[in-house]
Amino acid sequence: MTGRAPDRALVDDWHVVVDRSWLTFGQLYRTKLFGAALQISPDVDGRARVSLSATGAVLPSVERYGLVFASVGRPARDVLDIPEARESDRLIVTGGSIGVGVSGLRAVENFLDLGHLPFVHADILGDEAHTEVEDYDVARAEDGGILVTNCRFFQPVASPSASGGIMADYAYRVFRPFTVGLYKTNPKQPDRRDFIALFVQPVDEERCVAHSLLAYVEDGLTAAGVRAFMQLIFAQDKPILENHVPKRLPLDPRAETPIRADKSSIAYRRWLSELGVTYGAIPA
Amino acid sequence: MQQDLRALWFPVASSGDLPLRHVYQGQLLGLEFAVWRADDGAVNVWENRCLHRGVRLSIGLNLGSELKCQYHGWRYANGDASCLYIPAHPANAPARTIRNRVYRSVERYGLIWSAIEPLAEPPVIPELETAEPLALRPMPVAAPASRVVEALRSYAARLGAEAVEPAAEVPPAGAFALRASWRRDGEVEAAAFFVQPTAARACVIRGLLLGDVAEAERVATLKAHNAALTALREEAEAADAREPDAAAAVEEAKIPLSPRVTTVAGGERAASGEAIRVRVARKWRVAADVVALRLEPISGALPPPAPGAHVDLHLPNGLVRQYSLTNGPAERDAYVVAVKREPQSRGGSAAVHDAVREGDLLAVSPPHDNFRLARGGGRHVLLAGGIGVTPLLAMAKALAATGRSFELHLFARSEEHAPFADDLGGLGASVQMHTGLDPTATGDCISAILADRADDAYVYVCGPAPMIEAAVARAEQAGWPDSAVHFEHFGNAKAVDDSTAFEVALARSAITVAIPAGRTITDVLREHGVSVPTSCEQGACGTCITTVLEGKPDHQDVFLSKAERASDACMTPCISRSLTPRLVLDL
Amino acid sequence: MLILHDYELSSEAYAARLMLGFLGLAHESRPVDVYPGAANEAPAFRRLSPLGRVPVLEDGGLALWDWQAILIHLAATYDESRRWLPQDPARAGAIAQWMAVGRELEDSSGLARRHLAMFVDADLPLAQERAHRLMRQMDEHLWFQEQAGQDWLVDGPHPTLADLAPFPAVMLSEEGGVDRRDYPAIRRWSERFRRTPGFVTMSGVFPAAPLG
Question: Which PROSITE patterns match (chain C) (predicted)?
């Protein structure tokens, strides 16, 4: 996929390029960001070093939450702050990075979508007897991004700690064009929310890597169990995502057919248009 | 020559590629198709992309009469690819304009033929009309179609046989079709090869062996040709890899992103609601005061109706009237409606009874699917009053065809006044006739029928307004919830009060309009360029249902249920008005 | 009690889960954090599976760490109908041949999938080319089987391990960039296989439309 230059807003920001645990001293990990080849390996002192394969130039990078963030420009702001990652009674673990052959923007939109839960995640996050998507709220967040609240959906197995179906309460926050978070009722402690962050790495316009951070309220869960659940769910979305035509996200509202249940994706596409994001998209 | 390819017919699949409940992924000139055979035998060639988010339909599920998208479960109808069901909003019928792009197709000679923008009719190849050709194994080749056609000219030599004559074109199949013949063991054999250009540098060779092949020889013959075509493929691919010939590459077709444009003749009209021209093929009496009309299309196919649907019939005297279709699922060639002579006719039923003759040309709208069967459900109770049997007959046929349990009760003045007695007889014991009952007796009969209620039971009522009101009331008394009782009025006999004036704002555009007394919301909006689909213009059929975002509607229709009216979340703007100074509609 | 050391995204583990499903065998499932945790490389796990492979089947005192060995063991021990691993010598060779193809598909198409999804090192174009060569052959074989009235890779009324072994890699091939649109006979075969009673899906494998 040949390079169109990414938009300034994307260039001057941080993007996850690898799960830190995947790096081994002495070995080179290769990936791409906005079509540019990167090489990553840990320094003698254990710090991840990210450089452009073509020139050897070292890129600014930050490690946080077990993930390595890098930038091909000059970031004006810090890596996203996740307060849940500081709460001591949570199991904080990366979910495992999965490569997907579609634009990262489509992956974010799929993460926001409720209508597919009874079909793609049948008998886990939804079932065919309960397909209706009730009205929910969408608003712009004060410090940028989109807030989606008041989503309710019947789920046979809402999370790794669920025993029996519940009406799950969902809320989403789209923090940045390629970063989105999900807040979900904890089945055992209804007043707490489990939190999952999805950091999508735009490999190029039609390929991405989905890195996830899981912050579950601790309750006898293991890292293996929590990761298995996340990967099971994401691997169900993967072939659907890879069978989108076109792979890039069309921003023209007339290009596809949104319905009332797609309020969040309508807002997301409109927001991307306003930000002038075109990388991985088909502008209106 | 390159531009012509979009106008030409090519085979895009073999009949054997479409087994029961399968979806085949095809391709032509760079465009992907989802090709599937419905249970009734009809073949569908559709753009391989669900309208919703563009997910490939070839990974979807062929459910026999519908294709179900793997992503959100949207369902598309066999035939016109209109969206029938959107699970995220199960109570709402999708707009008829949500339909996938359909490519014309025909099944002929064991092949499925299709074209991107055909100018002519599909090819009729005389030699294949009478023969029973043996289909060779289709051979995909990663080389441009034109190079493969060239390579096929020497096919006889590949078989180690002597060519009888030079390989020739196969009129009228035209481009990329070749007929080869050769002599083997003293016998003359021949084959027709159709090369399907799937992409710029890829194609599929679909060969048909002409002449008889003994059963004992069949597999050996197929293997021999498969080996010859495999060798051809390997050579063509190697040659193309060595020196890719830019000129030979086929120009791929490009379609615009918007999925709303259809290319089916008649499809565009149907998508925009334009009337379809039909001929009255038959007119006959089905009850004492009821005639039926069989309406066949002048050209193209009719959009298949959902059971319970109605159409607008444009009459010769300029009037437009709504009539329910009695069509069952297998009846796709014509629409059948029934018209009762109304004593107080405003001119519509009189025109049908007295003026319309067999052979006359009329026009119908595409079907409006507002009166629908519930999905699933264990028991369906159909209550018909006289001419109200028409939509319920369609529903009964659909339920019978899918083996679902139902009972149809027809209330009529007498046997002679009961329409379609023969069709009803064919449905067997599920139909009961109740004749000569007065209103009280009818009500008691209905109470008895509805006394026994299960959670997955539904009632459908159609007939004169007093009967519907009585049935709805008796159902409520017997504990049936609002959502389980479906009804359709044929007209709205209530007096309309249009004396209010108010404002209507449209949420999706920056328009606010003033609605004066004496004018309907839909009329005024139409003047401002916003067209809401309508049919009866009386608040009876539900075609114009619109979501209300703010304000309190003044419901004057007979279509909405009690709960819908109480919620004020929707209204029928063709007749209803506003109780508040301002209404905001989701338009 | 049978114990399966399992990983959700492993196509070889899926083969084992398919066999357990077809035979209706109760078993305890122990998830192994293969990715990104590399728990299969840990010393404790390698005492059970010396080459670090997943799935591993424990049956009483026996521990098997090769996926095809697991299929053969389950079929030989628990399949009373003798359908999945028929005893007749006439078909033994053919079944072994297609099981070998199944292994080669895991090592080509499966490798491409693991490379693109989970960043396992691989020569992607080579893996994809190998997968296409195998699937081209499989498609041709299946087309001629259909011509002879046969539904499966090896003659007989019922699928055998010859069908089960290549099935996971075939179904997940598109995740490795190996398209199946040129293999319509394989697509029909996979639909027949998915209708076999006891069939279970995995993430990325869709159930077939019911025949109604």
Answer: GST_CTER, GST_NTER
Query: Quick one: C129 and C149 in the same domain?
Result: yes
**Which tokens go with A117?**
């839960």
Contacts within 8 Å (CB) and 24+ apart, C171-175: C171/C204, C171/C205, C172/C11, C172/C109, C172/C110, C172/C113, C172/C204, C172/C205, C173/C105, C173/C109, C173/C112, C173/C113, C173/C131, C173/C135, C174/A239, C174/A242, C174/A243, C175/A238, C175/A239, C175/A242, C175/C113, C175/C116, C175/C117, C175/C204
Report the alpha-carbon distance of residue A193 to residue A215 in Å, rounded: 9
pLDDT in tens, A250-276: 987 667 887 878 889 988 998 998 888
DSSP secondary structure, A71-118, as one string:
-SS--SSPSPP-GGGG-TTEEEEE---EEESS-HHHHHHHHH--TTHH
For A126, residues 6+ apart whose C-beta sits below 8 A from its C-beta are A117, A118, A119, A153, A154, A155, A156
| d(C-alpha B152, C-alpha C19), whole Å | 46
The stretches of B308-427 forming alpha helices (DSSP H) are 348-350, 389-401, 421-425
B257 to chain A, any CB pair closer than 8 A? The answer is yes
| CATH H-level, domain B502-585: superfamily | Beta-grasp domain (3.10.20.30)
According to the model, what pLDDT value does residue B509 have? 64
Average pLDDT over residues B435-464: 89
d(CA C138, CA C73): 25
CATH class of the B275-364 domain in this structure: mainly beta
Chain B's closest residue to C208, CA to CA, is: B61
- Distance from the Cα of residue A115 to its chain's centroid: 18
CA distance A28 to B15: 52
Q: How far apart are the first and last CA of chain C?
A: 37
Q: Give the CATH class of B1-116.
A: mainly beta
Residues C59 and C97 in one domain: no
Q: Residue C72: which CATH number?
A: 3.40.30.10
Closest chain A residue to C36, measured at CA: A96
**Closest residue to C36, CB basis, from A22, A234, A242:** A22
**Residue B216 has which token pair?**
């004992």
On whether the B125-252 domain is CATH 3.30.70, my answer is no
Contacts of B59 in chain A (CB under 8 A): 239, 243
pLDDT digits (tens, 9 = 90+) for B360-399: 989 898 888 888 888 777 889 999 998 999 999 999 998 8
pTM above 0.90?
A: no
Q: What are phi and psi of A164, to 5 degrees?
A: 105, 160
B363: left (phi over 0), alpha (psi -120 to 50) or beta: beta
Residues counted in chain C: 212
Q: Which residue of A has its CA nearest to B92?
A: A132
Q: How many residues does chain A have?
A: 284
Residue A256 tokens, joined: 């596809």
A233 touches chain C (CB under 8 A): yes
d(CA A127, CA C173): 27
Tokens matching residue B53: 């988010």
Which of B51, B72, B260, B509 to probe by mutation at the A interface, max A CB count within 10 Å? B72
Query: Could you tell me which residues are beta bridge partners of residue C57?
Result: C4, C64
DSSP-derived letter for residue B368 is B
CATH of the domain at C177: 1.20.1050.10
Cα separation, A110 vs A199, in Å, equals: 13
Amino acid symbol at C135: M
Residues 6+ apart with CB under 8 A from B463: B383, B384, B385, B386, B387, B388, B411
